[in-house]
């Protein structure tokens, strides 16, 4: 019993930095993809639409620096999401959980949290390109986080058992 508890503590100490980096880079990569899709007019919303433009009306928020700051803020928030996934979903393998979580994230952003983002239209007022693009980005983001965390956890368990 004592050995199993010590093994669990070792996995936690090793996994937390991995989970933090997975969360940060997941937020960085997928918010950059969202920025590019907004730049190329695949979507009418971008990271700065959520993070800065909903609360600030300063001129700099509509420029590249606003997009950069928004990407960094999303990357930091993404660390919290990855840590939550590590706490509650690390043992779940496969991409289906990520797909479901991604759809849930999309509904949270465009449905439930819509009053927090007055700069974003209500989801039924969005054009189809925006809906499809943002839904796909949310799904890909959640699959990236969920699969990376669960894969790293399974790999760490395997390494602990073989050593």
From TrEMBL:
Task: Write the record's keywords in alphabetical order, separated by commas.
Answer: Membrane, Transmembrane, Transmembrane helix
The record's listing under Pfam families reads: YqhR
Task: Tell me the domain of life.
Answer: Bacteria
- What InterPro entries is this protein classified in? YqhR
Regions that span the bilayer: 20-44, 64-88, 95-112, 132-154
Q: What is this protein called?
A: YqhR family membrane protein
